[in-house]
Design goal:
heterodimer; A: alpha+beta; Beta-Lactamase; five-stranded antiparallel beta sheet; five-stranded mixed beta sheet; disordered C terminus; B: Rossmann fold; Arc Repressor Mutant, subunit A; 8 helices; elongated
C-alpha cells in the first residue's frame, strides 16, 4: 500500500472527487441545455424573419411580376451582409440570386431547413457554411428560396462548447487536486491519532492526542478520546495499586498461616498439637477471607460499578440499627454509645453499603477508644447531670443537599497530616498495621461514600476523631461523580 | 437428610459428600447443570446445594426451571460472587439461601440443616417451647419456669430465630442476616455480645442452661436432655 494508494483510498479524497464529479456533470448538463435552447431560439428567430421577407417578396411579385421580383432580389443582394436568395423558373433554372444553386437539403414547404452552401465570394476556400432557409413556390412555376447564413452562430456555439469542455476538464483537475490537499491534511491529523493510539497500545499510557487548537470536530473527538484515555489510565493505575496492596495485605497473613502449619507439623506433641495448629490455621484463613472480601468490595466500589440497588432509605433507621447492633459491644468496652438524629430526613442510597460504612466507623471508634481509655473531659457544671459523657456519638444532620452522619469518639484521633492518607484506598496508618482486619474500615467507608457521590472527612473531635460520612440526599449524579473521581 | 450437590469442582463435591456423610446425611453429586436438573427432577431431596457457575446449564437457570415446574425443595446457592446484587439475583431466581465462597463447612452445614427443617409457610407456629422456656409470638411474651422475662425487641427476635431453629447450630452470619438483615461482616464479634446479654436474661439463675455456644460454629438453643 503506497502513500498514493492510501491517499486515493481515503474518505476525504473519495468524497471530494465524488462531489466534484457530480458537480461537473450537473454543470455540463445545464450549460448544454442553455446552449441548445439559445441555438433553437436564434434559429427560430431567423425563420420568423425569413417568413416575413418571403411575404414581402411575394407582394413584389404580385404587383410587378417576375421582373419586379428579380429587381427586388438584386437590390437586396447588393447590400452588404445581405441574406441569401435564389429565384428558379419552372425548369429549375436560376433566374437571379446570390446562391449558386438550389441546395439539395432544401425541399419546398415546412418550417425552414438547415443546409450548407459555399459562399461565392470565398469559393477558393471552398468553405462550407451553414444556413437556414425557406423554399416557397411562387405563381408561374417559379420557386423562391430565401435563406440566412447562421455559420457565425454555429461557430459561436462550437466555441462555447469547447470552452465549456476545457473549463470542466480544468475544474475536474482542480477538484482532484483539492481532494488530495484536503485528504492529506485530514490524513495527517488522523494519522497522528492512529500513531498515538499505537504508542498507547505499545504500553505508553501517558500519551495524548495533540489538538490543532481550532476546536473543530476532530479536536472535539481528540478531546473526548483524551478524556477517555485519562480515565483508563487512572483506572489502570488504581488497579495496579489494588493488586500491589492486595499482594501486600495478603502476603503477611499467608506467611503467618504457613509458619503456623509448619510449626504444628514439626511439634513433637503429636495429634493434640496438630489439632490445635489446624484450628488456628482455620482461624487465620477466616481472617484472610475477611480481609480479601473487604479488599474485593473496595475494588468493586472503586471500579465505578454504579449499583442499581439505590433506593430511598431512612438514614435515622440506618444509624439506629447500627447503634443497636454495636451498643452491647460498646458497653462491654466500657463506652457509652449515643445517637442523635435530626427527624424527618430521607436519603437515596444502598442501605447495606451505607450501614456497612457506618458500622466500620463505629467499629473503629470503639476499637480506638477502648485502646486508649482516655477519660472523657466533663465540664464541672455538667458533672452531676451526666454520670459520664457518651464516649461515642453518632449524629445525623442535614446540611444543604447532603445528609451527614458523624461518628465521634474520644480516642487518640488521627493527626491532621495523616487524615487525607487514612481515607485513601488500602492505605493503613502504620499504627494499625498490627491489628488484623483493622484499617480497611475507613477506606471502605470512603469508597462507599464515593460510590454514592459523597465524601468521608476526618475532623478533630478535641480530643478524638470525628469521622463524617456525607452523602447527597438524592443519590449519586453521574455528572457530579466524575469530577470527584478526577480530582484524585 | 438427602442432599443433592450440584458442583462441577470434583474435589469440593467429594469433600462435601464425605463431610455430610460424617454428619449422618446422604449426598449425591451432579457434575454439571443438566445432570443436576435431571436428578433434582427425580425428587426425594431434602436440600439442593447448587453452585452458580456450572457447565452446560448455569445454577440460576437450573433453579428457575425447577421453580417453574413447581418444585419446592429448599436450595442453597454457592457462589464466588458475593456482591449485594448477586445475592439478590440468586434469591430472586428461587434460591432460599446464598453462601459465598470461600465458606466454612460448619456454616454450610448449619444453613442446609436450617433449610431442610424450615417449616412450610402454612404451618405458622405461634408459640415455641424449649424445656421450661416459652416464647409467644403473638403476645411477644417470654417466660421461663412461669417467670416473665423482659426482652428488648431485637433480643426477642434473636431468641425467636434461635428457638425456631432449636436443636440446630445457628452461625453468627445467619443471625446477622436473619435477625439484623445485614449481609456484611462486622469486624468485631458484635453478635457474641448480644448473645451473652440474651443468655444472662434467659439462663441466669436457672440450673440448666439452654443457650449453648458451639465451638467454632455458632450457637444452639436446646433442652439439655435432648
Amino acid at each position: 500500500m503506497t502513500a498514493l494508494n492510501r491517499l486515493i483510498g481515503s474518505t476525504p479524497f473519495r468524497l471530494t472527487v465524488a462531489y466534484m464529479g457530480a458537480f461537473v456533470v450537473a454543470a455540463a448538463l445545464i450549460v448544454a441545455y442553455v446552449a441548445w435552447r439559445a441555438n433553437e431560439l436564434l434559429t427560430s428567430k431567423a425563420i420568423e424573419a425569413l417568413t416575413a421577407e418571403v411575404a414581402s417578396l411575394r407582394e413584389q411579385f404580385q404587383s410587378g411580376g417576375p421582373p419586379r421580383l428579380v429587381a427586388a432580389i438584386n437590390e437586396r443582394t447588393g447590400e452588404p451582409g445581405s441574406g441569401l436568395y435564389l429565384l428558379l423558373d419552372a425548369g429549375s433554372n436560376k433566374l437571379v440570386g446570390n446562391l449558386p444553386r438550389k441546395p439539395s437539403a432544401l425541399v419546398p414547404g415546412g418550417q425552414g431547413h438547415l443546409f450548407s452552401y459555399q459562399r461565392p465570394s470565398d469559393s477558393m476556400g471552398a468553405h462550407e457554411r451553414l444556413a437556414v432557409g425557406l423554399s416557397v413556390p411562387v405563381s408561374g412555376g417559379h420557386t423562391l428560396i430565401v435563406a440566412r447564413d447562421i455559420e457565425d452562430q454555429r461557430q459561436f456555439a462550437a466555441t462555447i462548447g469547447r470552452v465549456a469542455l476545457w473549463s470542466f476538464g480544468l475544474l475536474s483537475v482542480l477538484g482532484v487536486g483539492a481532494g488530495i490537499l484536503i485528504s492529506r491534511s485530514m490524513l495527517a491529523r488522523i494519522e497522528a491519532v492512529t500513531e498515538t493510539s499505537r504508542k498507547i497500545m505499545a504500553g505508553d499510557l501517558s500519551r495524548r492526542i495533540e489538538l490543532s487548537g481550532s476546536g473543530d470536530e476532530l479536536d472535539r473527538l481528540a478531546e473526548s478520546l483524551n478524556a477517555m484515555l485519562a480515565r483508563i489510565e487512572e483506572l489502570l493505575l488504581a488497579l495496579r495499586e489494588v493488586s500491589d496492596n492486595i499482594a501486600h495485605d495478603l502476603k503477611t497473613p499467608l506467611n503467618r498461616l504457613r509458619n503456623r502449619a509448619e510449626a504444628a507439623l514439626r511439634s513433637p506433641d503429636g495429634p493434640s498439637s496438630y489439632r490445635d495448629g489446624l484450628a488456628k490455621t482455620i482461624e487465620e484463613a477466616d481472617e484472610l477471607i475477611k480481609t480479601f472480601n473487604s479488599l474485593l468490595l473496595i475494588a468493586r466500589l472503586e471500579g465505578g460499578a454504579v449499583a442499581e440497588s439505590m433506593t430511598p432509605v431512612d438514614p435515622a433507621a440506618i444509624i439506629g440499627d447500627i447503634a443497636e447492633l454495636y451498643e452491647p459491644a460498646a458497653e462491654e468496652a466500657g463506652l457509652a454509645l449515643a445517637v442523635s438524629a435530626q427527624p424527618g430526613l430521607s436519603l437515596v442510597a444502598n442501605r447495606e453499603l451505607v450501614s456497612q460504612a457506618v458500622a466500620n466507623l463505629v467499629d473503629n471508634a470503639i476499637k480506638y477508644s477502648a485502646a486508649t481509655d482516655t477519660p472523657a473531659p466533663v465540664a464541672a457544671g455538667a458533672a452531676q447531670a451526666t454520670a459520664f459523657a457518651p464516649a461515642i456519638t453518632i449524629a445525623l444532620t442535614r446540611t444543604g443537599r447532603a445528609i451527614e452522619i458523624a461518628v465521634a469518639d474520644r480516642g487518640p484521633g488521627v493527626a491532621p497530616q495523616d487524615r487525607e492518607r487514612a481515607l485513601q484506598r488500602f492505605v493503613r496508618l502504620e499504627k494499625s498495621r498490627s491489628r488484623p482486619g483493622a484499617g480497611l474500615g475507613l477506606s471502605l467507608a470512603a469508597a462507599v461514600a464515593r460510590m454514592h457521590g459523597g465524601t468521608v472527612r476526618l475532623e478533630d473531635n478535641v480530643p478524638g476523631l470525628r469521622a463524617v460520612l456525607s452523602l447527597p440526599v438524592d443519590g449519586p449524579h453521574p455528572a457530579s461523580a466524575l469530577p470527584s473521581r478526577a480530582k484524585r | 437428610m438427602r442432599v443433592l450437590v450440584v458442583e462441577d469442582d470434583r474435589e469440593t463435591a467429594l469433600f462435601l459428600q464425605r463431610s455430610l456423610k460424617e454428619n449422618g446425611h446422604v449426598a449425591d453429586i451432579a457434575g454439571d447443570g443438566e445432570l443436576g436438573l435431571a436428578l433434582a427432577r427425580e425428587g426425594g431431596w431434602d436440600v439442593l446445594i447448587v453452585d452458580r457457575m456450572l457447565p452446560r446449564l448455569d445454577g440460576l437457570s437450573l433453579i428457575e426451571t425447577l421453580r417453574r415446574e413447581g418444585a419446592r425443595t429448599p436450595v442453597l446457592i454457592l457462589s464466588a460472587l458475593g456482591e449485594v446484587d448477586d445475592r439478590v439475583k440468586g434469591l430472586r431466581a428461587g434460591g432460599d439461601d446464598y453462601l459465598t465462597k470461600p465458606y466454612a463447612y460448619t456454616e454450610l452445614l448449619a444453613r442446609i440443616e436450617a433449610l431442610a427443617r424450615r417449616p412450610a409457610p402454612e404451618e405458622q407456629v405461634t408459640r415455641y417451647m424449649i424445656g421450661d422456656l416459652t416464647l409467644d409470638r403473638l403476645s411477644h411474651k417470654v417466660t421461663r419456669g412461669g417467670q416473665a422475662i423482659a426482652l428488648q425487641p431485637r433480643e426477642f427476635r434473636l431468641l425467636e430465630y434461635l428457638m425456631r431453629n432449636a436443636g440446630q447450630v445457628v452461625t453468627r452470619t445467619m443471625l446477622l442476616q436473619n435477625v439484623w438483615d445485614y449481609h456484611f461482616d462486622p469486624q468485631t464479634n458484635v453478635i457474641d455480645v448480644h448473645i451473652s446479654r440474651l443468655r444472662s436474661k434467659i439462663d441466669r439463675g436457672f440450673a440448666k442452661p439452654l443457650l449453648h455456644t458451639v465451638r467454632g460454629s455458632g450457637y444452639m438453643i436446646r433442652d439439655g436432655a435432648e
